[in-house]
Protein backbone atom coordinates (compact mmCIF):
# COMPACT_ATOMS: atom_id res chain seq x y z
CA UNK A 1 0.00 0.00 0.00
CA UNK A 2 2.85 2.40 0.82
CA UNK A 3 4.44 1.82 -2.59
CA UNK A 4 1.06 2.43 -4.25
CA UNK A 5 0.70 5.74 -2.43
CA UNK A 6 4.26 6.76 -3.33
CA UNK A 7 3.55 5.93 -6.97
CA UNK A 8 0.27 7.87 -6.81
CA UNK A 9 2.20 10.88 -5.45
CA UNK A 10 4.68 10.67 -8.34
CA UNK A 11 1.77 10.51 -10.81
CA UNK A 12 0.10 13.49 -9.12
CA UNK A 13 3.30 15.57 -9.36
CA UNK A 14 3.83 14.54 -12.99
CA UNK A 15 0.26 15.59 -13.82
CA UNK A 16 0.63 18.96 -12.10
CA UNK A 17 3.98 19.93 -13.64
CA UNK A 18 2.61 20.65 -17.15
CA UNK A 19 0.11 23.09 -15.61
CA UNK A 20 2.91 25.31 -14.31
CA UNK A 21 4.45 28.16 -16.28
CA UNK A 22 7.31 26.79 -18.40
CA UNK A 23 10.08 28.58 -16.51
CA UNK A 24 8.92 27.28 -13.14
CA UNK A 25 8.26 23.82 -14.57
CA UNK A 26 11.77 23.60 -16.02
CA UNK A 27 13.24 24.70 -12.69
CA UNK A 28 11.32 22.08 -10.74
CA UNK A 29 12.15 19.35 -13.26
CA UNK A 30 15.84 20.33 -13.04
CA UNK A 31 15.73 20.26 -9.25
CA UNK A 32 14.01 16.84 -9.21
CA UNK A 33 16.83 15.16 -11.15
CA UNK A 34 18.57 12.53 -8.98
CA UNK A 35 21.93 14.24 -9.42
CA UNK A 36 20.57 17.42 -7.79
CA UNK A 37 20.11 15.84 -4.36
CA UNK A 38 22.98 17.94 -2.99
CA UNK A 39 20.93 21.06 -3.75
CA UNK A 40 17.40 19.70 -3.32
CA UNK A 41 17.76 18.64 0.32
CA UNK A 42 19.09 21.98 1.66
CA UNK A 43 16.46 23.85 -0.39
CA UNK A 44 13.74 21.64 1.07
CA UNK A 45 14.96 22.23 4.62
CA UNK A 46 15.12 26.00 4.06
CA UNK A 47 11.61 26.04 2.61
CA UNK A 48 10.25 24.05 5.56
CA UNK A 49 11.94 26.41 8.01
CA UNK A 50 10.58 29.41 6.07
CA UNK A 51 7.10 27.92 6.25
CA UNK A 52 7.38 27.71 10.02
CA UNK A 53 8.03 31.46 10.12
CA UNK A 54 5.00 32.25 7.98
CA UNK A 55 4.06 35.17 10.20
CA UNK A 56 6.89 37.18 8.63
CA UNK A 57 6.45 38.99 5.30
CA UNK A 58 7.70 37.16 2.19
CA UNK A 59 7.97 33.89 4.11
CA UNK A 60 4.68 32.10 3.95
CA UNK A 61 2.82 28.93 4.65
CA UNK A 62 3.16 28.05 0.94
CA UNK A 63 6.81 27.20 1.63
CA UNK A 64 6.02 24.28 3.94
CA UNK A 65 4.28 21.94 1.45
CA UNK A 66 6.77 22.82 -1.27
CA UNK A 67 9.66 21.96 1.05
CA UNK A 68 8.01 18.69 2.04
CA UNK A 69 7.40 17.81 -1.62
CA UNK A 70 11.07 18.40 -2.41
CA UNK A 71 12.19 16.43 0.62
CA UNK A 72 9.92 13.55 -0.43
CA UNK A 73 12.20 12.95 -3.41
CA UNK A 74 14.93 11.81 -1.00
CA UNK A 75 13.09 10.54 2.10
CA UNK A 76 10.94 7.54 1.11
CA UNK A 77 8.37 7.70 3.93
CA UNK A 78 7.13 11.17 3.07
CA UNK A 79 5.49 10.44 -0.31
CA UNK A 80 2.66 8.23 1.08
CA UNK A 81 1.86 10.81 3.75
CA UNK A 82 1.79 13.62 1.19
CA UNK A 83 -0.48 11.57 -1.07
CA UNK A 84 -2.93 10.93 1.78
CA UNK A 85 -2.95 14.65 2.63
CA UNK A 86 -3.42 15.58 -1.04
CA UNK A 87 -6.36 13.16 -1.35
CA UNK A 88 -7.91 14.60 1.80
CA UNK A 89 -7.48 18.15 0.46
CA UNK A 90 -9.12 17.22 -2.85
CA UNK A 91 -12.06 15.51 -1.09
CA UNK A 92 -12.50 18.45 1.27
CA UNK A 93 -12.29 20.96 -1.60
CA UNK A 94 -14.98 19.08 -3.58
CA UNK A 95 -17.21 18.81 -0.50
CA UNK A 96 -16.91 22.53 0.26
CA UNK A 97 -17.46 23.51 -3.39
CA UNK A 98 -20.57 21.34 -3.63
CA UNK A 99 -22.14 22.85 -0.49
CA UNK A 100 -21.28 26.47 -1.27
CA UNK A 101 -24.13 28.32 -3.00
CA UNK A 102 -23.30 30.16 -6.20
- Counting structural domains, the number is 1
**How many whole angstroms does the radius of gyration measure?**
15 Å
Quaternary organization: single chain
Main sheet specs: none
What string, H for helix and E for strand, traces the elements in order? HHHHH
Number of strands: 0
> Treating each run of at least 4 consecutive H or I residues as one helix, how many helices?
5
Average pLDDT over all residues: 88
The share of residues in helices is over 70%
What percent strand? under 5%
Describe the structure.
This protein is mainly α and 102 residues long. The protein has one domain (2-99). The protein has five helices and no strands. The chain has helices at 2-16, 22-32, 37-52, 63-71, 78-99. Helix 1 packs across helix 5 (78-99) and helix 3 runs antiparallel to helix 4 (63-71). The longest helix is centred in the last third of the chain and has 22 residues, at 78-99. The chain is globular and about 45 Å long.
Quick summary:
The protein is an all-alpha fold. 72% of the residues lie in helices and 0% in strands.
Q: How would you describe this structure in keywords?
A:
single chain, 102 residues, mainly alpha, 5 helices, 72% helix
Topology:
Elements: H1 2-16, H2 22-32, H3 37-52, H4 63-71, H5 78-99
Helix pairs in contact: 1-5, 3-4
